[in-house]
Specification:
- Chain B: Pfam families: STAS.
- The structure holds two protein chains of two kinds.
- The termini of chain A are far apart.
- Chain A is built from twelve helices and 47 strands.
- In chain A, the strands form nine sheets. Chain A has a 23-stranded mixed β-sheet that branches.
- Chain A is α/β, with parallel strands linked by helices.
- Chain A folds into five domains: about 160 residues, no CATH class; about 80 residues, no CATH class; about 100 residues, no CATH class; about 190 residues, no CATH class; about 120 residues, no CATH class.
- Chain B has one domain: Transcription Regulator spoIIAA (2-Layer Sandwich).
- The chains are: A alpha/beta, B alpha/beta.
- The interface between A and B is medium-sized, with 27 and 28 residues.
Chain lengths: ~675, ~120
């Protein structure tokens, strides 16, 4: 009879020699079938022994008997006939355990068990296997692509490669040193096994895959942290999480302690100094006109506020244990403006005049002044005369026919403005009505806008001039030494004849503008005008000796240019109850409580009308919001904003015209909840 | 030391200038050269011996040329050294006085100009 045994070993050679030992046979007496090659695996994981089946040919005369035995019985016998230690490891690998439980006739069947293919020949049936896609079946060393018949003598082998993708990781530190990151791309190990198949005449070979994530060795991460000197704020649990993560990701594995910022020195007013924009509303929602105190004021001797010193921040620590300084803090230096004196080592500001406190902070310098306030307890008329005032003006009555009130600061009119003119540098509040009058807030900003325009032009030209003079001075044939005797005058004259023809007229325009605004501008402007007059305009006696003199003027002009670019529009506004037949200009917002009849409004900011607009022209640079617009009597009502502005009207009556950018629309029917603006392609949307 | 000589060649008066054209020339220019050249038809300034200029000197030259032109004279400037011509071009003299005044100026000579 044939005696066979399935044996395992670290290598095929070892497996065969174990089998031959067990069968007490020599190699040339046996058929050797390799069932599975050995697999080395990774770090001892996933390694597999080599499996062989060794059959000893006709060694004794029991052949005939054996043929009638099932393979299980035959092998049982074979095993019994051997000196087989009970605890021998390959015992469990003998086919009796690998073979399916089913005791029915296996002849002509093929099956897969624990990764090996088994079959049993039969004279009338041919067991067949078919490798599925992705299964590399070798029969007697040849790759099989289609269904094949298998015989017991065939050496069947399926090539199954495990796949290992090593994990990748990287430790980085943020630029500010405040965080360390661990970026991981997890590694995987894919095990492939032949799927077990029950005995059948036909078996499709399938592979099962199992996937394991490879855990990153934490020690390697910790070593890397040491290398990078990351010692502060290390989050070990996060490192562990990163190392075992099954998804690609970046983990914050260390956090520095950020510095606590300090606080710059600041001025702490002892009372409200901001001009309140809104009128005071009573709790029931009505407006309390008598209690209005919109412009805060101080009395002589009153403490305006205290200069608070800067507080230092607390330094932080980076992940690499370096000290991270908090941003530097600066003390606030105070300039005594008009009506203010500093006491107690300059830490306290006290008013020396009564009026409206004004604090303007630029960088780390604050100028504190008290703007005097003029209170007129009656109507402005022929008897009081026109009012021109540098500070704030409060009129307890009305401004009457043909009068003019002009103030650099705010103007508060407790009653009406009738056929008069009221101009303020800042805000205007009219508690009642504006009738047939002209009211303007922040008109100086007009001047400032003009000045900034001219200045920017002149600045460019002056800089070019400096460049030209410097270039000229570098030419050896040009006698620079003469400048010490003549100054830059003769040269400027030539430049004016050449490409700087427009320079002189423009300079003169600037000087005139500055002089025309002498009440509204501060002395720096006049200094500039004087320097430019003496340097550029009086060219025959020009004060400029060197290029540096021009550069000084440029510096001065630049400072002023920046100061006018900062708009004060938020402190300029106009508030009134009703506007009738008037012209109202504000460089900031305009807000009207009740309504507007046939008036012209222009705002650099927004216009808000809680009531109606009946006739007239409304223009705002930003937003117009009106409860009701249009007139039944047919007086034209036009509301416009620039292309990026918006218009909202609660109810637009027919014939009301709205304009956004250059797109206009006339309402032909009453329309509620109008919201007009341009869309991205510049079309007017009304919805 | 600044000197000048006026050479009469047929109808053309050639003014040969020797020395720096600078602030020190003011008096000679105003008191001598200007009156001497008045009512001459065709005037050529020979600059071959002018090594240095300053802005006052250029200013004087510009004034002189404008006065002579107003009096009906034809004025040209010749033999300007390269360095001095560079100064002139930086100051845009060819543009101010007209390019034809610099007869030596090659047509393809582009005055150096900075962006303005």
């Amino acid at each position: 009879m044939e005696r066979k045994i399935v044996s395992k070993g670290k290598t095929i050679k070892q497996a065969v020699s174990i089998a031959l030992d067990l069968l007490n046979a020599k190699k040339d007496e046996a058929d050797i079938e390799i069932i599975e090659h050995e697999k080395r695996g990774f770090l001892g994981l996933g390694s597999k022994p080599a499996v062989v089946r060794v059959t000893v040919r006709n060694k004794d005369n029991r052949e005939g008997v054996a043929e009638s035995l099932s393979s299980v019985e035959a092998l049982k016998q074979a095993a019994e006939s051997l000196d087989f230690p009970e605890d021998f490891p390959s015992l469990s690998d003998t086919p009796d355990s690998a073979a399916p439980e089913a005791e029915h006739d296996l002849s002509g069947m093929v099956w897969v068990s624990e990764g090996s293919i088994f079959c049993k020949d039969a004279p009338d049936k041919y067991p067949m296997v078919s490798p599925r896609k992705g299964v590399k079946l070798f029969k007697n060393g040849e790759l099989v692509k289609k269904t094949v018949i298998v015989f017991e003598k065939d050496v069947l082998h399926v090539e199954l490669a495990d796949e290992i993708v090593e994990p990748k990781w990287e430790v980085t530190v943020s630029q500010d040193g405040m965080a360390a990151f661990l970026k991981v791309i997890p590694g995987t190990r894919i095990f492939r096994r032949l799927k077990d198949k029950l005995p059948s005449q036909f078996v499709e070979l399938e592979v099962t895959e199992s996937k394991d994530f490879i855990v990153i060795d934490i020690d390697r991460i910790l070593d890397r942290l040491k290398e990078l000197e990351i010692v502060h704020g290390v989050d070990f649990s996060e490192i562990a999480r990163a190392c075992t993560s099954e998804a690609e990701g970046t983990f914050v594995i260390a956090r520095g302690t950020p510095p606590t910022p300090g606080k710059h020195g600041y001025f702490q007013p002892t009372q409200e100094v901001e001009v309140k924009k809104g009128l005071k509303h009573r709790e029931d929602g009505t407006i309390d006109y008598r209690e209005i105190q919109q412009f805060p004021s101080v009395e002589r001797g009153q403490v305006l506020g205290v200069v608070q010193p800067p507080t230092q921040g607390v330094p932080g620590i980076s992940v690499t244990n370096e000290l991270v300084l908090s941003p530097e803090v600066y003390p606030l230096s105070i300039i005594e403006g008009k009506g203010v004196v500093l006491v107690e080592d300059g830490t306290k500001a006290v008013a020396t005049a009564s009026g409206h406190p004004e604090i303007s902070v630029k960088g780390h310098v604050a100028k504190i002044s008290v703007i005097p306030k003029l209170i007129l307890n009656k109507d402005i008329d022929i008897q009081t005369g026109n009012i021109h005032y540098v500070g704030d003006v409060e009129i307890l009555g009305s401004v009457q026919d043909g009068m003019l009130v002009e103030a650099h600061g705010n103007i508060l009119v407790r009653e009406n403005i009738n056929r008069a003119k009221v101009f303020a540098g800042k805000a205007i509040i009219v508690q009642n009505n504006v009738i047939s009058s002209e009211v303007a807030a922040g008109k100086n900003n007009h001047l400032k806008a003009d000045l900034s325009l001219i200045l920017s032009d002149l600045l460019g030209k002056m800089k070019n001039m400096v460049g030209a003079i410097q270039q000229l001075s570098s030419v050896s044939a040009f006698k620079v030494s003469s400048f010490t005797r003549t100054g830059l005058g003769p040269l400027l004259k030539i430049l004016y004849d050449g490409k700087y023809k427009s320079f002189l007229p423009l300079t003169k325009t600037l000087i005139n503008k500055i002089q025309s605004g002498k009440d509204a501008l501060d002395e720096k402007w006049f200094e500039l005008a004087e320097r430019m007059q003496k340097g550029f305009v009086n060219v025959n006696f020009s004060e400029f000796r060197t290029v540096e003199d021009i550069q000084q003027v440029i510096k001065m002009a630049e400072e002023l240019y920046h100061s006018v670019c900062e708009t004060d529009d938020d402190i300029c506004f106009i508030k009134a109850s009703i506007a009738h037949n008037s012209e109202i200009y504000s460089s900031g917002d305009i807000s009207i409580e009740k309504g507007i009849y046939n008036s012209k409004l222009h705002a650099g900011g927004c216009i808000e009308v809680d009531g109606f607009v009946r006739g007239g022209e409304i223009y705002a640079s930003k937003v117009v919001k009106i409860a009701e617009a249009g007139a039944r009597g047919g007086i034209a009502t036009k509301i416009s904003v620039p292309k990026n502005g918006t218009i909202r009207i609660g109810l637009a009556i027919e014939d009301t015209v709205i304009q956004v950018g250059n797109k206009t629309h006339t309402f032909t029917v009453r329309t509620s909840n109008v919201y007009a603006r341009l869309n991205e392609s510049g079309e007017l949307i009304i919805a | 030391m600044f000197t000048y000589e006026i050479i009469q060649e047929e109808s053309k008066s050639i003014v040969k200038i020797n020395g720096d054209l600078d602030i020190d020339v003011t008096e000679i220019m105003q008191d001598e050269i200007t009156p001497a050249l008045m009512e001459r038809q065709d005037i050529e300034f020979d600059f071959s011996n002018v090594p240095f200029v300053d802005s006052s000197g250029i200013g004087l030259l510009m004034t002189l040329i404008n006065e002579l032109r107003e009096a009906g004279s034809q004025v040209t400037i010749t033999k300007v050294s390269q360095e001095v011509m560079y100064v002139f071009s930086l100051l845009q003299l060819p543009e101010i006085l007209g390019r034809e005044i610099f007869v030596d100026l090659k047509r393809d000579f582009e005055p150096v100009s900075d962006t303005n």
